[in-house]
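Moderator note: this is an archived Q&A kept for reference. The question asked for a predicted structure of one protein chain; the sequence and the answer are reproduced below.
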Amino acid sequence: MHPTRLLSLVFAVLVSLMPLGTFAESPPGDRQERSITISAGLEGRGYWGVATRLQQVAEEQGFKVEVMESVGSLQNLQRLRDPDSPVSLALAQADALQHHLSSSPNPINSIEPLEYIGLECVFIIAGAGSDIRTIDDLKQDAGHRIAIVSPESGVAVTFQYMSALDPKLRNTQPVYMDTEKATHELAADDTPVDAVMLVQRPKVLSPELKLALEHPDKYRFVAIKNGKLDQRLPNGEAVYQPIDVVLLRSGGMAKVSVETICTKGFLVANKQKLSTDQMAKLKQLIDYHWMRVYSTE
């Protein structure tokens, strides 16, 4: 599906799920002129690349965007809403955005998704000798542990949402830790976790994915079939899309197909933290230069 059409569909879904008035204009007196700061993600990861490309294009268009590192979607959204935080733009997964908005006790009138930034796919990595081959194996008897980078990450929200759709996943306990370190330890005899979970753009080779791809004798990708995760939104669109993602090993020669699920990512703004002029510049950048920011690599 063309990105523009997909964006329209997803925005329609978000509008249908949010309280009335979510996209209403904020009174001009409520806006404060401040610099544009985007909360991105971990340096060198997928969101960081989107944010720094946005920063570069903005500078060429005559305005500045500062990039702030974070642990992921949920922290990005928390900063976006915090009136004391300089963050006025954030990158977030659709499931994390919906979770954040629906968990708020009051309507959020200032939060507006500006543009679609691509698919975010779930990857679960286990040791090659592990008995975990599919997501069904994680739903068996309690005792499995899965590494997630932070409780403030979009990964944590995705695991929470997946567990709500399929309660048997609650048999697996999330362990919040450095997932790159956890991936290295999966290959050891004594490991603190049984698997590592990531949510990221499929063409960005994070350190964890790179390890798993370059050492197939030590790691395997856990197959994620939709099953009970095939939840539908009010417009009939699935929360998670089942996809066979093709990953390329370093050098681009050997290919690995991973059966998984993906959600959508967005650039999100807090209109109360942006002036009318700043919003106009951002929308002009999106209208005329977005494909330079929305790189598929």
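Archived answer notes: The mean pLDDT is 83.
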